[in-house]
Amino acid sequence: MSGKTLTSEERNTLIAQLSGTTDDQDWWRNAVIYQIFPRSFADGNGDGNGDFKGISAHLAHLAGLGVDALWVSPFYTSPQADGGYDIADYRNVDAMYGALHDFDDMLVKAHRLDLKVIIDIVANHTSDQHPWFQEVLVAAPGSAARDRYLFRDGRGESGELPPNNWPSDFEGPAWTRVADGQWYLHLFSEHQPDLNWDNADVLREFESILRFWLDRGVDGIRVDAAQCLIKEEGLPDLTESTRDTVDDPRFDCDRVHEIYRAWRKVINEYDNRVMIGETPWIKDFSRSARYMRADELHTLFNFNYQFMNWSAKSARQVVQASLEQYVGAGSVSTWVMASHDRPYPVSKLGLTDLATTLVGIGPHNEQPNLELGLRRARAIIMLTLGLPGSACLYQGEELGLFDNTQLEAKYRQDPRFFTSPDPKYIVGRDGFRTPLPWNSSQATFGFSTEGRSWLPQPDTYRDLCVDLQQFEEDSTLSLYRMLIALRRRFALGDGVLEYLESDRDDVLMVRNGRVTIMINFGYMPIAMPEGDMLLCSDPTVSGDDAELPGNAAVWYTTD
Q1: Which residues, 6 or more positions from 101, have their beta carbon under 8 angstroms from its beta carbon?
Q2: What is the pLDDT averaged over residues 355-365?
């Protein structure tokens, strides 16, 4: 390969020049979004739990990374039966994270740094501690209060059997019986009763909740479990032919689109706001694209991309289908590789059997090869940030963090660990919700001002702390910063993808505008094309090298 590699000075200058975001109506189309799981991001008051003071104290890190927006997972009043996704009050901040004025303070500071703020709306269910559900428990069957949830009589001679055979995502049946004998539906934990979205009170309440937060100045709404809100009329049993298909009565029913059309009217009352959906169980691109029609959600997190195998064929199929369907719907793909529900790329890509990570929690009996996982994680982010559309990063991903798979049972809090029929295999999600490491010389690696941490961090996180990586040219943090800066410099989020031919079926080559991306999914090196190398995932590779190693990626440009 002939050409040049950017010097350290050129990289730093470029990052400084390209920081900041634009304030236009379509900012979400090319945004890089950073997900914050608030309990694990940073603790500002010393109690061992992350909070809004901690987020505010580290906003400069996100601005320096170059992201456009931050998405904060649920922070509302909650008994924390499922990490805050069980909400008791949608209009207040849980005391664990501070108070409403702490949220407002964080929002103001984020906007001063030109960072948008997206919040979660969990609409499929409430907490069983929500006032509505507490009212239900003393209300009679058939009452107006009970109609806000999905209550049914049981089957069997005395109603002792659940109304249908639906399973809970947290194991066991998706039904729990109350004292008067009726059953309520919960697709997730028994502490998360599903709402009845055919009830007018529910629709009015959530439109009011949307306005409450939009009026406070949030820039976007992320809709949790967006495909779940409407169930098939009659709640029919699952069969082998309907489970996890387009005919599954639990998900993706056509009438759910009426809800998002109503919500979109609310969103459109405000300038420059966005609504993003989470639809992890919809694998059919044509079905998920329907959520992104002009009068519904703006975009979706692309879970098919997250679930793809480590192969050039799988990557091309997912990318090509995503762009064809989502762009065809008038939207963009929001690429995502990790989240509060899915393992870090380093851990996932370091496993032999990647299929085990589809459940999002990974096997206990196979520990990832972290060296291989990091090589692959650094390579795949070069593809992710080089694609048209937007992208969502998960906190700590930019540090090369890995799951804490060795967390002792006594520390675990994820209900999935406790409801699993085999907790030695299903280890839960705590491992990738472990508090972030900020400072290598401090207790809890700087996560807490008082050295406390709600989950223990592995000792090996010390080498991945922000203070050690931020000035190291070849660190994973530096790689992310440079990729985001180059992405903005070459307008890759607004680009058009062209597929290039390769002599190897384990190599993917694509061109986006002036930038060509080559990713080697195999182990054997491959010759570099002609051009000027912008960046390589393998820090040992320079612009003078003739070959790209295996499990690595490169960006280069030709003029």
Answers
A1: none
A2: 44
Position of tokens 């804490």? Answer: 404
Model's pTM, two decimal places? 0.93
Sequence-distant (≥ 6) Cβ neighbours of residue 422 within 8 angstroms = none
- Whole-number pLDDT of residue 141: 96
Catalytic residue flag (residue 284): no
- How many CA atoms are closer than 13 Å to the CA of 178, on its beta-carbon side? 24
Choosing from 153, 180, 269, 473, the catalytic residue is 269
What is the tens place of the pLDDT at every residue in 370-402?
999 999 999 999 999 999 999 999 999 999 999
Is the CB of residue 34 less than 8 Å from the CB of residue 62? yes
- Condensed to tens digits (0 to 9), the pLDDT of residues 124-141 reads 999 999 999 999 999 999
Mean pLDDT of 503-514: 96
169 assigned to active site: no
Is the alpha carbon torsion for 65, 69, 74, 77 positive or negative?
A: positive
Task: Check if the beta carbon of residue 6 is closer than 8 Å to that of residue 14.
Answer: yes
- Among the listed residues 407, 397, 404, the one whose alpha carbon sits nearest the alpha carbon of residue 376: 397
**Radius of gyration of the CA atoms of the chain, in A:** 23
Mean pLDDT of 21-43: 89
- Rounded to whole angstroms, the Cα distance separating 58 from 203 reads 36
- Residue 18 pLDDT exceeds 60: no
- Provide the β-strand partners of residue 533: 556
- The span from the CA of 378 to the CA of 537, in Å, is 5
List all residues 6 or more positions away from 477 whose beta carbon is below 8 Å from its beta carbon.
65, 398, 399, 400, 466, 469, 470
Distance CA 272, CA 221 (A): 12
Strand order in the sheet with 175-177: 151-152, 183-185, 175-177
The catalytically annotated residue of 224, 252, 278, 414 is 224
Query: What pLDDT does 43 receive?
Result: 98
Contact status, residue 288 vs residue 282, Cβ threshold 8 Å: yes
Candidates 202, 198, 192; CA nearest to 231 is: 198
